[in-house]
């Protein structure tokens, strides 16, 4: 499809319609993707009218889906996935995304072949059913994850859904392409099946390895370009599509020279590259640049999803088979797919729970995993990748195999979106998956108390500066004092009614303190006061500490403890020790900066704890719990200060140079801010601003 005036107009009109649909979804509380498909269906008769014929000129094509939209959706999801959490749940995600998918594919194909051949007398080749089973078993979590976010589903359940979807996408596409190549062969014998299994394994494993390599290469390029932020951001933006396209090109080359035996999965490689960049490469740029990247991918994915789902609605017109002829087969297929999904979840997850190799997946989660398996972009992509001229011996129907599979796929997508997606919220409430945990209930009450306390403090400031009248001030103060008292009473009641009050109080306070540590650690990194190496070391320690506190263990995690779950960081450190041994060592000045950061952070936590106890929790949380935590951080601060002073005495010249550098960087930021402020106040012209900025940069060098 070439881009014409009509298709360009159709593209932007569809985006405007999608935006309007988003606001309608917010108002009606219906899933956005469901409404998009419904709107697409409504547009079908509208597009048939002469003034709106242009809407039919922009359609989903294999190239548009496979090379532009799909990498966007994959990268956006994988970029924000924590490798630590994936590693924690590696067996659950692997089994759900590989074993369950293969079981579902085989069940769907075998059951449909039996029903259509022996009960209905409709001859459809088993390989075509197997092809359909592979593509329809790939799940699309977009609508489900949006509801999870709205209702506050457990974080691990969200991870299992997203992890399964990402990795079963790659598995499904690899299986799909192997089947396509097998179908194209004139004769199928045992050697072909063995070759197909080998190709499938190479696609999966090769995709993982190549994805990690591409993620590492792009991360290194981003690091080299980090001083030029726009270049670094551009590299992060193009990394998704370049990884996808490079993998596909290499796969074609290898397949051509090995008779199709060796291929790579572009979806799996893009997923792994995104995870490497998201967990490792993102620290090569400033936090502000990382925030921009995250927003960019979120916006890009929103546009991609909007186009895909509204065009899925419009795809209804492309079905050449009469609806009345497809209705019964679609109903049968939808039921078989739903039952096969359930069979691929319950027994397999039960067996996984029995092994106890990972944390148990509760029955309520299994119900949602079985019911919440929606279909979307990937299923349509795979259908469109089926060659138009694909046929089978004795295929005696007026429609092609591709048209038949397309009709069934669209029917399944509509069924999962209009039936399953609209009932997931109700199901979550019924299963009480939106309920807050014990500590979250206390944290909610404590957060409300902190909010109203801070508002009262700021109201006093506004009153002193004359921003607010006496009457309005008194009215607002009365309201927020009442709300503060209610929140404090609620928090007090929750702690009093708990059987283990002291333990819960310790847990809430320590989680709060660790959150403060993370906040100020990020600030130090943002302002360039610590290096990436130090930032990651402290962040790793805090992450491990938070996990221990969540489990009720309040012991101190030392900085030399290795975080075995951070797979990519361990791999990077291993390669660094081999190829760049000097950068892997922790120098004396690194140690000084490390202890300086720990001292600053401990001081900030103590200040926040004092404010919290004085203004918010004076009689909510026992003074013993607060004192225990204050003593811990006081000892921590004194120890870090002593070690910092010890390092300063050992390397005075380096410390003096570092302090001068930090002060100079701070002054440079101040100068930059003043120039920007002068320009915004129109006290200097754009030309003068450019001149002053250039002079400032030259001075900095």
Automatic annotation (TrEMBL):
The keyword Isomerase does not apply. GO terms for molecular function: potassium:proton antiporter activity; sodium:proton antiporter activity. The keyword Coiled coil does not apply. Gene3D superfamilies: 6.10.140.1330. GO terms for cellular component: plasma membrane. Residues 15-429 form the Cation/H+ exchanger transmembrane domain. The chain crosses the membrane at residues 6-25, 32-54, 60-79, 91-120, 126-148, 169-188, 194-218, 230-250, 262-280, 300-321, 327-348, 406-427. It is a multi-pass membrane protein. GO terms for biological process: regulation of intracellular pH; sodium ion import across plasma membrane. InterPro entries: Cation/H_exchanger_CPA1, Cation/H_exchanger_TM, NaH_exchanger. Keywords: Cell membrane, Ion transport, Membrane, Sodium, Sodium transport, Transmembrane, Transmembrane helix, Transport. It is found in: Cell membrane. This is Cation/H+ exchanger transmembrane domain-containing protein. It comes from Candidatus Kaiserbacteria bacterium RIFCSPHIGHO2_01_FULL_46_22. The lineage of its organism: Bacteria, Candidatus Kaiseribacteriota.
């Amino acid at each position: 499809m070439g881009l014409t005036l009509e298709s360009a107009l159709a593209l932007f009109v569809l985006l405007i319609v999608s935006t309007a649909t988003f606001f309608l979804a917010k108002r009606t509380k219906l899933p956005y993707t469901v409404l998009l498909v419904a709107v697409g269906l409504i547009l079908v008769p509208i597009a048939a009218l002469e003034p709106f014929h242009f809407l039919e000129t922009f359609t989903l094509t294999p190239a548009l889906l496979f090379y532009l939209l799909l990498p966007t959706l994959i990268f956006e999801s994988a970029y924000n996935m924590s490798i630590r959490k994936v590693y924690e749940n590696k067996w659950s995600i692997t089994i759900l995304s590989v074993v369950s998918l293969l079981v579902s594919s085989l069940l769907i194909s075998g059951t449909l072949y039996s029903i259509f051949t022996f009960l209905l007398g409709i001859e459809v080749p088993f390989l075509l059913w197997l092809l359909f089973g592979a593509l329809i078993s790939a799940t699309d979590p977009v609508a489900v994850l949006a509801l999870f976010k709205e209702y506050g589903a457990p974080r691990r359940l969200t991870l299992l859904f997203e992890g399964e979807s990402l990795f079963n996408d790659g598995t499904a596409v690899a299986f799909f392409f192997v089947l396509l190549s097998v179908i194209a062969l004139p004769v199928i014998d045992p050697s072909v099946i063995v070759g197909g299994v080998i190709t499938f394994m190479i696609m999966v494993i090769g995709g993982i390895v190549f994805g990690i390599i591409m993620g590492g290469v792009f991360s290194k390029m981003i690091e080299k370009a980090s001083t030029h932020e726009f270049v670094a951001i551009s590299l992060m933006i193009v990394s998704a599509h370049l990884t996808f396209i490079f993998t596909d090109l290499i796969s074609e080359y290898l397949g051509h020279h090995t008779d199709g035996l060796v291929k790579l999965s572009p979806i799996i490689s893009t997923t792994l590259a995104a995870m490497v960049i998201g967990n490792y490469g993102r620290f090569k740029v400033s936090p502000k640049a990382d925030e921009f990247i995250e927003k960019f991918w979120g916006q890009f994915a929103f546009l991609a999803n909007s186009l895909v789902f509204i065009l899925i609605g419009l795809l209804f017109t492309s079905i050449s088979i009469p609806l009345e002829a497809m209705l019964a087969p679609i109903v049968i297929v939808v039921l078989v797919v739903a039952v096969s999904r359930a069979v691929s979840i319950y027994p397999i997850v039960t067996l996984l729970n029995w092994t106890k190799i990972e944390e148990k997946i509760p029955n309520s989660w299994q119900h949602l995993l079985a019911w919440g398996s929606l279909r979307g972009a990937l299923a349509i992509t795979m259908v469109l990748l089926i060659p138009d001229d694909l046929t089978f011996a004795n295929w005696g129907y007026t429609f092609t195999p591709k048209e038949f599979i397309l009709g069934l796929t669209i029917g399944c997508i509509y069924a999962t979106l209009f039936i399953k997606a609209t009932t997931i919220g109700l199901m979550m409430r019924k299963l009480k998956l939106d309920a807050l945990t014990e500590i979250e209930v206390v944290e909610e009450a404590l957060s409300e108390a902190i909010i109203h306390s801070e508002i009262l403090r700021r109201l006093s400031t506004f009153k002193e500066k004359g921003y607010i009248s006496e009457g309005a001030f008194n009215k607002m103060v009365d309201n927020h004092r009442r709300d503060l008292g209610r929140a404090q009473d609620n928090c007090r009641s929750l702690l009093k009614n708990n059987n283990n009050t002291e333990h819960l109080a310790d847990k809430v306070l320590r989680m709060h303190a660790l959150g403060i540590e993370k906040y100020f650690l990020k600030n130090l990194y943002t302002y360039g006061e610590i290096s990436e190496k130090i930032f990651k070391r402290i962040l790793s320690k805090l992450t491990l500490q938070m996990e221990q506190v969540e489990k009720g263990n309040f012991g101190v995690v030392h900085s030399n403890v290795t975080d075995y779950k951070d797979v990519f960081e361990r791999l990077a450190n291993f390669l660094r020790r081999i190829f760049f041994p000097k950068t892997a060592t922790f120098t004396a000045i690194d140690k000084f900066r490390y202890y300086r950061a720990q001292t600053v952070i401990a001081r900030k936590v103590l200040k926040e704890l004092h404010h919290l106890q004085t203004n918010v929790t004076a009689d909510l949380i026992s003074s013993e719990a607060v004192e225990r935590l204050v003593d811990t951080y006081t000892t921590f601060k004194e120890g870090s200060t002593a070690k910092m002073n010890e390092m300063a005495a050992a390397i005075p010249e380096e410390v003096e140079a570092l302090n001068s550098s930090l002060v100079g960087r701070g002054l440079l930021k101040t100068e930059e801010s003043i120039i920007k402020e002068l320009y915004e106040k129109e006290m200097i012209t754009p030309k003068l601003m450019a001149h002053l900025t250039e002079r400032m940069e030259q001075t900095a060098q």
